[in-house]
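[STRUCTURE TOKENS]
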Amino acid sequence: MPILESQNPATGETIWQGAPGDVPAAVARARKALPNWALAPLDSRITIARTYKSIVTERAEAFANLIARETGKPLWETRTEVASTAAKVDISITAQAERAGSRTGEVAGVRQVLRHKPHGVLAVLGPYNFPAHLPNGHIVPALLAGNTIVFKPSELTPAVADFMADCWTAAGLPDGVLNIVHGAGETGRALAAADIDGLLFTGSATVGHALSRQFAETPGKILALEMGGNNPLIVWDTDPQTLDAVAAIIVQSAYLSSGQRCTCARRLIVKEGAAAALLDRVTALIDRIIVGVPFDDPQPFMGPVIANRAADNLVLGAEALLSRGAKTIRPLTRRDPDRPFLLPALFDVTGVAGIADSELFGPILQLTRVADWDSAIAAANNTRFGLSASLIGGDQALYDSFWSASRAGIVNWNRPTNGAASNAPFGGIGLSGNHRPSAYYAADYTAWPVASLEANTLDATIPTGLTP
């Protein structure tokens, strides 16, 4: 049996080794555990979830260290990921009560009741960029709803998944309720085709579309897709006195997490006459970005991208832009051929034809200069994706125009594209999702509603249409 391995992208250190998971066995365990878990009182499931939160909090530093080692992200950032992982519990409990709780009313003297049921066995396919927080965002609400889980993490971050599963076990989660299967793409495909009742996915549009085609044959199974973005950031009518703040928002939008967030800005759209002064501030800030290993002191802003293969693909993506006629403002520099450290890049693609509408999942930002507001909106919406969009500058009327015209599930004003509230829905349209937003709205896709009319006594007649 082949051995799987994960490495620290910053150093090449081996973090984890193990064998591929047994999908049928994991699904069978989840199916066996389902009846008891689904029938367990909600208060019992909440108690276990809150204990899990306490354990994650107690183990926060070890958890953050592991995420940093397996992803290469700076320690300051992985600490925020662990905090978000713990915070998801209380947010999910509130969301479950609000969006999937029970309701009682009356219709024509008859009691009307709304309740929700779990789907059953749900598969979760997780990404590498936030290997704890993002799958946790599916798992916590799914468990609260009474589902059992088979979780396949990214093959690049298996150790984080095992750590998280161990926290659930320590919290008292019964055997078989959460099952981990490790493996690469073939394991994910096997899980998607297994005896499951639904699949919750975070990852690329390519894989998401393949899942959508596969699940078209099984409309009775829930499919929630959270995919990527080719996100626009418009800078318009800004006060010259605020250019340093504007530059900070641009840099955070484009290069946070080494550009490995689905909400990172990929396209910067600016008014032609205002570009020069803005770019002076942006490039000055880019040149100050520290790229380093997770535990450096001082802490870096960026670590490496996840793996050498990812770095190679990003270099190819930058070369494709240049071959089309893009102009280099800051090159995509790979400082070490053996490790996936990339310095942040900025290319001017104004007037360049034939640029692929794709998500370059790394520290690459493309600048487009436009003459007027209508052209800015057209450029922003010139994508099949629709996850995140942001406007920097302008007044309330301009933002209202931007909000109305934007094709995105997250629309921000004077905030980065990758700023999103955990107590709000998170998702997009087009290639970015299938109208199943996650975060606060995950409660919607982890349970299904059952509407009932109920009476304690039997009383029925047919008053019309019968012979005497």
User: Anything to note?
Assistant: The two ends are 78 Å apart (CA to CA). The CA atoms of residues 204 and 227 lie 5 Å apart.
